[in-house]
Amino acid sequence: MLETSRLVLRSWEDSDREPFRRMNADPRVMEYFAAPLWPAESDAMIQRIQSHMDRHGFGFFAAALRDTGELIGMVGMSHVPFEAHFTPCVEIGWRIAAAYWNRGFATEGARECLRYAREVLGLAEVVAFTVPGNLRSRRVMEKLGMTRNPEDDFEHPRLPEGHPLRRHVLYRTRLLQSQ
Ligand SMILES: CC(C)(COP(=O)(O)OP(=O)(O)OC[C@H]1O[C@@H](n2cnc3c(N)ncnc32)[C@H](O)[C@@H]1OP(=O)(O)O)[C@@H](O)C(=O)NCCC(=O)NCCS
Predict the structure, then answer these.
(1) Mean pLDDT for the stretch of residues 141-151
(2) pLDDT above 70: residue 16
(3) Which atom of ligand 1 is nearest to 128's Cα?
(4) pTM surpassing 0.70?
(5) What is the 3-state secondary structure (H, E, C) of the chain?
(6) Which residues contact ligand 1 via a Cβ below 6 A?
């Protein structure tokens, strides 16, 4: 479990299913994904994420408010589950319920994850990616000090050719100085 001034980043619990379903069904939250998720898809996502956490000791953590315990989204890291020119590597990512946007939660949680990646996991580099139009997410990447080289942009292999969301921008952050 990781903590920031306002957030707890932790393993997933049964009580997270309902608020996670609501968030994943919200078209605002899912604007830059292929489609909103059905409840069963959202539950399956929790299961996939939790298996990754059990196996690797980190993953996309459940993000809850420290004060109230309310689940407001997920923030964390994951091994990239597809092949691309920048894999194998670990990505950092975030999804926050719309009612909590623009209050710095994604950035706050992600900063703590990057500290953990550097100090505990000893990762040399972490990447993040999204579609070019997802300016909110790109802003979080920039606030974290991540940088984009347009030559790293790529076509997401999990989406069919011609899909409007296939083009992705890649941001990187180096965590360890090379020896
Ligand atoms: C991306 C997301 C996680 C950001 O969460 P958040 O907690 O609001 O993030 P923060 O408050 O830390 O930062 C958001 C930044 O985006 C900026 N922003 C908001 N709307 C924007 C827009 N339309 N264009 C450009 N920047 C925008 C905010 O002003 C803020 O930057 P600032 O601190 O410089 O003012 C949230 O919008 C979300 O869940 N979106 C849907 C899911 C998603 O796209 N996840 C990422 C997939 S790669």
Answers:
(1) 98
(2) yes
(3) 48
(4) yes
(5) CEECCCEEEECCCHHHHHHHHHHHCCCCCCCCCCCCCCHHHHHHHHHHHHHHHHHHCCCEEEEEECCCCCEEEEEEEEECCCCCCCCCCEEEEEEECHHHCCCCHHHHHHHHHHHHHHHCCCCCEEEEEECCCCHHHHHHHHHCCCEECHHHCEECCCCCCCCCCCEEEEEEEECCCCC
(6) 29, 32, 93-96, 101-107, 130, 134-137, 139-140
